[in-house]
């Protein structure tokens, strides 16, 4: 089961935990990593970042951001450090 930490900032709207359990990348259909504090979902395989707006994931390929290698390494290290688990 995916554990979602409570929001530490009042302006951040976390994604519903049940939704996180089934969310997949629209491009490769693989799992994502949720960074609640950055309001983003990340696909490390494609280095694609999806924005979360008011707790709603924007899962449009055209609106995703492809991150550079430095940002990819930062996100992967952060996910490891925080023990963030991928969706489904």
Explain what this protein looks like in three dimensions.
With 88 residues, the protein is of the alpha+beta class. The protein has a single domain, classed as N-terminal domain of TfIIb (Single Sheet), CATH 2.20.25. The protein contains two helices and five strands, in the order αβββββα. Strands 1, 2, 3, 4 and 5 form a five-stranded antiparallel β-sheet that branches. The longest helix has 13 residues. It is globular, with a radius of gyration of 12 Å. The N terminus is likely disordered.
CATH top level label: Mainly Beta
Task: List the total number of helices.
Answer: 2
Which consecutive residue ranges, at least 5 long each, have pLDDT under 50?
1-9
Mean pLDDT score, rounded?
Answer: 90
Radius of gyration: 12 Å
Beta-strand content = 15-25%
Would you spell out the secondary-structure blueprint of this structure?
Blueprint: H1 17-20, E1 33-35, E2 40-43, E3 48-53, E4 56-57, E5 65-66, H2 69-81
């Amino acid at each position: 089961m995916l554990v979602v930490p409570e929001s530490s900032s009042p302006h951040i709207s976390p994604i519903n935990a049940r939704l996180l359990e089934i969310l997949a990348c629209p491009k490769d259909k693989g799992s994502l990593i949720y960074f609640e504090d950055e309001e983003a979902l990340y696909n490390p395989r494609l280095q694609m970042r999806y924005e979360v707006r008011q707790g709603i994931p924007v899962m449009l390929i055209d609106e995703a951001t492809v991150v550079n290698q430095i940002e990819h390494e930062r996100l992967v290290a952060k996910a490891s450090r925080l023990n963030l688990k991928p969706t489904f």
